[in-house]
Amino acid sequence: MDGTLVDLDVDWEGYKKERGNRDVMKCLDLRERFELENIDNIGVRERVVNIARGLCDKKLAIFSRNTHKTISTAIKDMGIKFDMIISINDVEKPKPDPEGLELILNKTNVKKEKALFIGDSDIDRIAGERAGIKTLMVNEI
């Protein structure tokens, strides 16, 4: 979500410093605090949001390394109905593990041959490849 639909104003360096060597999955409260700290400074990627709005007849989902509360807060005024949201809170292994994408495909009954995953980073590209889903990078849109 961050970098694809929106740009969050997160001090990722400060987060990494405070997290230290602790596992990302054991520091979700810390991650959420850093993500929400400047949530009012969110930048919306209008081009991608408008594409998503135009796909209202398709099943839409979010798979993100952001926390569920951050995602919900960031998308609340977009006017897009997402059929499913998978956050870092919902998986045992975050991206680039394809667990979240596979969960979305299973729960929405979408075949991977019919799916399109849009991301903004190498982590997204790798997750899409591992899931066997066509992946489009946001900078290609």
Q: What can you tell me about this protein's structure?
A:
It is a single chain. The chain is α/β, with parallel strands linked by helices. It has one domain (6-140): HAD superfamily/HAD-like (Rossmann fold). 39% of the residues lie in helices and 13% in strands. It is built from six helices and six strands; from the N terminus they run E-H-H-E-H-E-H-E-H-E-H-E. The chain has helices spanning 12-19, 28-37, 46-54, 68-75, 99-108, 122-131; strands at 6-7, 43-44, 61-63, 84-86, 116-119, 134-137. The strands form three sheets. The chain has a two-stranded antiparallel ribbon with strand order 1-2. Strands 3-4 form a two-stranded parallel sheet. Strands 5-6 form a two-stranded parallel sheet. The mean pLDDT is 94.
Q: Briefly, what is this?
A:
The chain is an alpha/beta fold and about 140 residues long. The chain has helices spanning about 10-20, 30-35, 45-55, 70-75, 100-110, 120-130, and strands at about 5, 45, 60-65, 85, 115-120, 135.
Secondary structure topology:
Layout lengths: L5 E2 L4 H8 L8 H10 L5 E2 L1 H9 L6 E3 L4 H8 L8 E3 L12 H10 L7 E4 L2 H10 L2 E4 L4
Parallel strand pairs: 3-4, 5-6
Antiparallel strand pairs: 1-2
Structural features:
141 residues; alpha/beta; Rossmann fold; two-stranded antiparallel sheet; two-stranded parallel sheet; 6 strands
CATH architecture: 3-Layer(aba) Sandwich
- Profile the largest sheet: 2 strands, antiparallel
Give the terminus-to-terminus CA distance: 15 Å
> Can you write the helix and strand succession as a string?
EHHEHEHEHEHE
Strand content: 5-15%
Separate helix tally: 6
Which strand order spans the largest sheet, edge to edge or round the barrel? 1-2
Radius of gyration over all CA atoms, rounded: 15 Å
Q: Shape from CA axes?
A: globular
Number of strands: 6
- What is the H level of CATH, i.e. the homologous superfamily? HAD superfamily/HAD-like
